[in-house]
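Interim report, section 4.2 (structural modelling).
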Amino acid sequence: MATIYDVARRAKVSTATVSKVLSNTPYVSDTTKERVLEAVQELSYSPRLAARSLSGNRTFVIGLAIPYAPDYLFNDPFLLQVIRGVEEIANERDYNLLFSTALRSNPQSAYNRLLQHGYVDGVITLETAVGSEPSRKLEASGIARVTIGYPVSLDAAPNRLANAIHCDDYRGALEATQHLLALGHRHIGLISGPANFMMAIDERLRGYRDGLQAYNSPFQPELVAYGDFTLESGYSAAQKLLPLSPTAIFSFNDRMAMGAMRYAREVGLSVPDQLSLVGFDDVDLAKATEPGLTTVRQPAVNLGQIAAQKLLSLIAHESEAFDEVVLPVELIIRGSTRSVAS
Amino acid sequence: MATIYDVARRAKVSTATVSKVLSNTPYVSDTTKERVLEAVQELSYSPRLAARSLSGNRTFVIGLAIPYAPDYLFNDPFLLQVIRGVEEIANERDYNLLFSTALRSNPQSAYNRLLQHGYVDGVITLETAVGSEPSRKLEASGIARVTIGYPVSLDAAPNRLANAIHCDDYRGALEATQHLLALGHRHIGLISGPANFMMAIDERLRGYRDGLQAYNSPFQPELVAYGDFTLESGYSAAQKLLPLSPTAIFSFNDRMAMGAMRYAREVGLSVPDQLSLVGFDDVDLAKATEPGLTTVRQPAVNLGQIAAQKLLSLIAHESEAFDEVVLPVELIIRGSTRSVAS
DNA sequence: CTGAAAGCGCTTACAG
DNA sequence: CTGAAAGCGCTTACAG
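Predicted structure of the assembly:
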């Protein structure tokens, strides 16, 4: 593989000049520029990024730190669409994505491995469990960072800007709940995500409660079941909830809603005639079930795209740090909800 | 961030010694080793990979070159499970994955971008379209490489070993076809992938034809429709095939089979009573449809794992280049197939 | 067993 | 506008 020396020799200039031409520095005469570019062509030269990186320049790599184990990640359609958005932007801008998932036993390992490399221009992180502080090291490293999730207050740096991007979980849950209430439902079961896991879950819970309150409908803790976002956990949650005879169930993601739908069907409950069902995310399959799933659409791809765009402009110093960006959600009404049987 | 000089100073040794300790070279006295390790701890030092890379050592990064655009990739459950397998192994061995997808207009871009970096210990590629030679540059670079797919004969290096890993597509298609034939079906529609796209498709076609032949059932070209592996294309293919009154359809992946199932249902054909359906892959959802989908299971995760393992041992010079590894497939019989209505 | 020195391939002040 | 030289942080013969 050709090096910058080969190019310099061929173009009869110094390596410094080659470097300048390649980085588009002004003040290089057109004729030498031309000669250099020609040599670059002929040798099909491209600079080794490791060398660039070492001498303090960009690496054209952004890290993606994912505090989940691969088997979890690759079965979560929502997260995958977020990552797709990131990859789309990276791809367009000729950046590569350095992927770092976590060991099952240690969510933080995703961050640590990435940092060790010291080889990325910036990092996109997914928010980790409430209360943990994965980014302390990251913060200390001073590397550009954007989080997909909610701002976390860091003891170490209470005033720093979080660069956080997330959807309007509160409003999504509020609207979903009010949709059911407007249909006359008063016994609304809830399938939540793990307690104390992520801010998004807390926000959705808040939306659910505020929705009930707006209709003067009491919050009933026994109507809340906790899943882990898998279809199976939605199935189990439905097993717990249905004996309490809710007329509707609101689930914090679509997969769990589908699990609940399956269980309902197995015990002979018709959706939506005897049970209304609302999900969250609007994954691809939500419109493929029978009936289609009413759900709160999150702009997943867009979330990833915006995170990547923000990160790239932070890296390029084209924009300033920010605290948070909130993306709107949208209630998508399909066949799985209907007014309560009278 | 601490450098090797900081560590050397603190441990009162040379940087050479630090380097040796860190790379586990023998012939370092236990006491200095201990002192160095201590300093490493105290400074929480980790070597910058860019520097390592430059001085000719490992980068602990493997490249994953995917000749598809992100929107395609992230909607293909089979490919995602393959990648999951790769990531699992990488993760375990403390390797990172450098992701490179293609621009829509140019599948090769995935390879080129990766190569430019010159920053990976090895590359895993997905087989590209039959006839194209994406790996010429890669081959020239001499970098370790494993392909998920079939060996492609390279004009440039006709005798090189391909390091290719794939499933036994021929046998899978053969068994699927014979399963239908054994159930009495004689009009078996086929939903293929794009023609001249990948060896796997050719092999499955061969399996289908040989299956028919074994039952003295003629191959009828008009019963073959071509899709692009999306559910929608399976739906369209069924639109074309059903007017020809096949009693069964064999689809080259599960998503297209599900599309066909949807169309069949829309036109009032019951599966499996009036139409038997067989897929390929056994994605997660194949068991979730109603009825469950009979399909040819490919060990997707395993495919990725083995590719990663092979690559890592090639990198470590623990094993030799190979031509191909073929993984067995398994016919999974569920509710979507039944003997032909008499 | 340990260390001085060269080298990996770039970029960036700095001088001209 | 151009180039000589130092430096980025490591590793690896080589000498001791």
